[in-house]
Design brief:
Elements: H1 3-15, H2 20-33, E1 51-57, E2 66-72, H3 75-88, H4 93-98, H5 115-135
Antiparallel strand pairs: 1-2
Length: 137
């Protein structure tokens, strides 16, 4: 699925909820269901809360698509980092680089984050973007 389609689907799902706090709560509930991952990733993001993130090329795709996974000690950061990683996974690096990650702001999700959590989110996006830049053809 292309990023525009993914964004439309995610926006419709979250916009159906009453307000930004409800949308944010939905993401946290999703994060609770994510499998626990071993912290064998490099501690690639130095911030508080700590995020472990791993980016790689998707072996199941015929194209060079980025696949990214992140975990955190903070359930809130895990929710947002997991959303970004899932959203941009299995996408060609050029598509990732062309897409604006600010699509969450109008949904009222990022405004409920503390500065430290916004910083963690920015660092997750930065890592995904750096990986896409390094692998763009």
């Amino acid at each position: 699925m292309k990023l525009a389609e993914k964004q439309q689907q995610l926006t419709a799902e979250l916009a159906a909820l009453k307000n930004g706090q409800d949308r944010f709560a939905r993401l946290v509930e999703r994060a609770k269901r994510l499998p626990s991952l071993h912290r064998n990733f490099a501690r690639s993001i130095i911030c508080f809360p700590v995020v472990w993130q791993n980016c790689g090329l998707c072996p199941s795709c015929g194209m060079a698509a980025a696949s990214s996974v992140a975990i955190s000690d903070s359930l809130v950061v895990k929710a947002i980092a997991g959303l970004l990683c899932d959203f941009y996974s299995d996408q060609p690096p050029a598509a990732i680089l062309a897409h604006n990650p600010d699509f969450l702001a109008p949904l009222g999700i990022t405004q409920h984050l503390t500065p430290n959590r916004r910083n963690a989110l920015a660092k997750v996006w930065e890592r995904i973007r750096q990986f896409a830049e390094a692998n763009a053809k």
